[in-house]
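Milestone M4 deliverable, item 7.
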Amino acid sequence: MAKAKKTAAGVLPVSVRFGRNDQALYTMLITRARATKRSLSDQIKYAAYLGTIAADNPDLPLSFIEGILEAREELRAGLGQPYQWGVLEAAKS
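Output delivered:
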């Protein structure tokens, strides 16, 4: 097995090849990357990250996992608010 060389930034470059049977996957990744303003590389990393979390938590829906990740980032950005425990107020008509 060939030893990978690290770049100056310490990042290992990895080549990803899409064959003829992977055209639909490639097109989907490109489309989602454009829609979310990501590079193709970032979209592949995001998909791999979500896939790893989903494989580790097969009982959780993907939308729930994405919600957790979004909430974590909101907390890091200081947008979190403490939950007020107690009785919910009824909606006033």
